[in-house]
Amino acid sequence: QLHLQESGPGLVKPSETLSLTCTVSGGSISSSSSFWGWIRQPPGKGLEWIGTIYYTGSTYYDPSLKRRVTISVDTSKNQFSLKLSSVTAADTAVYYCGRHEYSYRHVRYLDYWGQGTLVTVSS
Amino acid sequence: EIVMTQSPATLSVSPGEKTTLSCRASQSVSSNLAWYQQKPGQAPRLLIYDASTRATATPARLSGSGSGTEFSLTISSLQSEDFAVYYCQQYYNWPQTFGQGTKVEIK
């Protein structure tokens, strides 16, 4: 059974960089049938896709966040990471990592999710 | 970007009743549509993918239908564990996008 766990600071100052790591256990991040994604949820609001990465390093980002987002993968540690720069209060959210099913050459739904971690942007 | 619109925002339903949630895409997503359930303080859980295929552990009383731009999630007889927020998501193309959610609450 695949398990994902987010980790990182729960408080980030405005204009600084938010950094989170997702550790994957129970399976390999180098699986050819998996892509790995970050999703966030502002308090009381809906889900927002941030970006997705393959173990080779290929990435897809939401256009509205693309200038500020970097997602990377460390296959030796079975981890992938999110960096979001120049944060403001609008970036306060629960951040989830998840696993996308990849089949028929198509990155599909998210079938495994981490528990989520709240990141607050405040001075 | 494909915009996903869910309706209604809130559904008030009595236990045992049947209810249907709707999701509309701003352009065709074929059958590349998933439904998720989220309870307070929990991560979303995949219920349905490819518009109508139940994920592992999704009970048979939940069913998905539709293709193109119009989709629905039907719960045939609401149980206490079904009261939650439901999101649809398209994965037809990038960026993948979610609807704003429908809250199913106890009437």
Describe this structure in words.
The complex is a heterodimer of chains A (123) and B (107). Chain A is 0% helix and 55% strand. Chain A has no helices and 11 strands. In chain A, a hairpin with a 2-residue loop joins β9 and β10 (106-113). Chain A is globular, with a radius of gyration of 14 Å. The mean pLDDT of chain A is 97. Chain B is mainly β and 107 residues long. Helices cover 0% and strands 50% of the residues of chain B. Chain B contains no helices and 11 strands. In chain B, strands 2, 4, 5, 6, 9, 10 and 11 form a 7-stranded mixed sheet that branches. In chain B, strands 1-3-8-7 form a 4-stranded antiparallel sheet, with no helix packed on it. Chain B is globular and about 35 Å long.
Outline the secondary-structure elements.
The complex is a heterodimer of chains A (123) and B (107).
Chain A: E1 3-7, E2 11-12, E3 18-25, E4 34-41, E5 48-53, E6 59-61, E7 69-74, E8 79-84, E9 93-103, E10 106-113, E11 117-121
Chain B: E1 4-7, E2 10-13, E3 19-25, E4 33-38, E5 45-49, E6 53-54, E7 62-67, E8 70-75, E9 85-90, E10 97-98, E11 102-106
Parallel strand pairs in B: 2-11
Antiparallel strand pairs in B: 1-3, 3-8, 4-5, 4-9, 5-6, 7-8, 9-10, 9-11
